[in-house]
Here is the input.
Amino acid sequence: MILAHRIAVASPMVQADMVEATEFPHLTIRYQVMGVPRTVINESVHIEGAVAEGVVVEKLQEALLEAQGGDEGEGTG
Amino acid sequence: MMSLLSAEIAEQVKKELADLAGPVRLVMFTQEIECQYCAETRQLVEEISELSEQVTAEVYDLIGDSDQAERYGIDKIPAIAVIGAADYGVRFYGLPGGYEFASLLHAIKLVASAQPSLADETMAVLAELDKPVHIQVFVTPTCPY
Here is the structure.
């Protein structure tokens, strides 16, 4: 997905990984990847399928709000 | 070893990367005893680097070069950090085959130009970010995104 990489280039705060799901089964289990593409933002927010730029931005804001509001301290993992 | 890229594909890649706006480093991480995908990913970045004057491949060992792994924030292999004038945080984990190969070429052009072509609204939101954001996109080679 090029969009995530474009967002990474646009902001020094963003890192974007493209992960080949079948090669990292522990991550597909951890992030409950049933279909692709599946986007995970900051461990907490998920996007199913390919979506428009505006939706990704909304979800990004959602992830940040969640981090502010309900930081449960998942540890360093 | 046989080429991963056919002569025909290599020619296309050469054209795609012909007018890169700046130099790009493909910083690849593998391990001493390479998994199949690690070996192929390393070979792929090496083959791509031979198709453009602007693209160089660097290969590191996840364990042996742990300082580099830390520098680029790499925690699993095979990994490719696509680095332009700066490290923009563009990463690939796993062999970028199929549709992901096109994504890798796009990423090379993207970091070379450093022009993400996003909507003004998106740029405005990104400018406000004050915390690190980690986006992980799970794909398969048959997924066109």
User: Anything to note?
Assistant: Chain B has one domain: 7-127. The radius of gyration of chain B is 16 Å. The longest helix of chain B spans residues 99-113. The helical segments of chain B are 7-16, 36-49, 66-72, 99-113, 120-127.
